[in-house]
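Hi, here's the filled form for the chain we discussed.

Project: internal
Contact: R.S.
Residues: 230
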Amino acid sequence: MLSKVRRLHYITVLTAQIFLLFIAAVMEHHIILTVLFIVSLFGIFGSIISTVWGSSRTRYLSLIIAAIAIVSGLLGFFPVFTDYAIRTGLTVCCLSYATFILIAIVSIGRNVFVTDRVTANRIVGSICVYMLLGMFFAFIYASMALIHGSMFSMSEQSSPGKFMALRDFIYFSYSTLTTTGYGDILPTNPIARMVSCLESIAGSVYLAIMVARLVGMHVTQAHQHHEASE
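And the returned structure, exactly as it came back:
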């Protein structure tokens, strides 16, 4: 029964992430889509917290960080605050999101890879970890841009606005994670360049380890099944 519950949570996390990607692409200047984007973020929060609920320390830490991210992110909806206060609040929000996602990566990754059996639950969980890696770096890039505005540059054809939005960082992050590198968004700061290189390496290494681990577990599982049937 526990396996089924966790599988449902992994599917929920993955579904919320995919939904988030599509909503982020078209949410600008549409209040309804912006609300859906926030709801999908809540969906990721809730499904991840449910997935790591078995560990009390991880559960409470995730709840605290989620609360900080939500409260600090609300500053962006109140123009009565100064630009500095809004920028500071959004920076704290992005860093809180990144920390929360990092906890999810460690928790889900530990459950996925520390096992002796290959199941649909583990496969979906491994995909969730890969998708969460891209989301983690997206919030890192966003916080870096909030701290220092010249971290990234964007071609005029790609963005009619003056500032990069979260969807731009999500797009850049997944392009970097998959080593696609379209070149329409470029890191212009040495720190941003190094973080981008780190994400490219992390994406390639993770895929290699994930495939090797899943294949190894499958071979071991098939060998054990063969020995049991003899």
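Let me know if anything looks off before we file it.
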